[in-house]
From TrEMBL:
This is Sulfate/thiosulfate import ATP-binding protein CysA 2. SUPFAM superfamilies: MOP-like, P-loop containing nucleoside triphosphate hydrolases. GO terms for molecular function: ATP binding. NCBIfam families: 3a0106s01. The keyword Transport applies. Residues 3-237 form the ABC transporter domain. Gene3D superfamilies: P-loop containing nucleotide triphosphate hydrolases. It comes from the Bacteria. CDD domains: ABC_CysA_sulfate_importer (cd03296). Keywords: ATP-binding, Cell membrane, Membrane, Nucleotide-binding, Sulfate transport, Translocase, Transport. It comes from Chitiniphilus shinanonensis. PANTHER family: SPERMIDINE/PUTRESCINE IMPORT ATP-BINDING PROTEIN POTA (PTHR42781), SPERMIDINE_PUTRESCINE IMPORT ATP-BINDING PROTEIN POTA (PTHR42781:SF4). PROSITE patterns: ABC_TRANSPORTER_1, ABC_TRANSPORTER_2.
Amino acid sequence: MSIEVRQINKRFGDFVALDDINLDIQTGELLALLGPSGCGKTTLLRIIAGLETPDRGSILFHGEDATDTHVRERQVGFVFQHYALFRHMTVFENVAFGLRVRPKHTRPTDAAIKQKVHTLLELVQLDWLADRYPAQLSGGQRQRIALARALAVEPRVLLLDEPFGALDTKVRKELRRWLRRLHDEMHITSVFVTHDQEEALEVADRVVVMNKGRIEQTGTPEQVYDQPATPFVYQFLGDVNLFHSRVHEGWAEVGGTRFAAPEAGDKAVIYVRPHEIDIQRIATDKALAGVITHVRLLGATVRLEVNVAAGDPVEVELTRERYTEGRWSVGEAVWLSPREARVYAG
Ligand code: ATP
């Protein structure tokens, strides 16, 4: 089912939580709402769900205005960060719950419920836990059960609010791959909220980057990462070094490396990702001189922090091989030159 978000505005007192939000969500799409804490992601998700009313604007489900449709009639399934499983019910009963509370004339028979619950538990690969209680499950297992429970009522839309937020990194990574595979099997239109850019880029078909109640950019993971529409998107999607420069004849420069500058203004800010910087030991007039002050191992890559004469320390990321070959160490004098950059008016 497609969802259209039209000119949605929402205030809490004087505070503008959502400022004119427009968004088209395609049928069967897995969409991520990504942004820092407080940017309005959850509020937007709750408005789509029908748990919150907008001050202005409308929500269309499959082309029909659903703004005033009650949450129960929207046929949405939810999964929240803090697993809201019923503690006194077994896994089986948790998943069956949404079917059991249906009005009598639409309620499936006990046999049909039993079969459906087992099918769903197989889908989330936890059929063997049917008789356990939530307290006897791991965090990751609880989230998968929460998802099975949300799917039981055959929602037209699945809404997930930081579904893996409370879990440790390794389990999170497993679950997001699993969510992607599950979505590829089910094709339910799904929207999930996250503040973790890696999670959004890895899992979603499209990413909506939000900031201060507005949408900064909507695009595929490649688009938002490779062609950020605004400095905010660039900074939010990965670590970045900023260099301030005066603009001369259409160029801005870092050390001696020149980049085409935007037309507006005589100042520019040059954004360079840590892995886009070359480091060497030989001085050239095209490079920025500095001294290595920290070395941090990040697994497959290594981050060097380099103090330069003017401006903030520069982060340089090398592959493990380049780092080992180069034998870089703290205290060494080095020269830096950016290979790539994006330049915005400063
Ligand atoms: P987080 O990742 O921290 O959950 P978020 O992007 O999901 O952040 P929202 O929960 O949508 O942000 O909140 C947006 C802003 O609106 C926040 O500043 C929040 O304090 C405020 N807000 C949300 N709900 C209410 C409410 N019921 N009353 C007053 N202010 C609210």
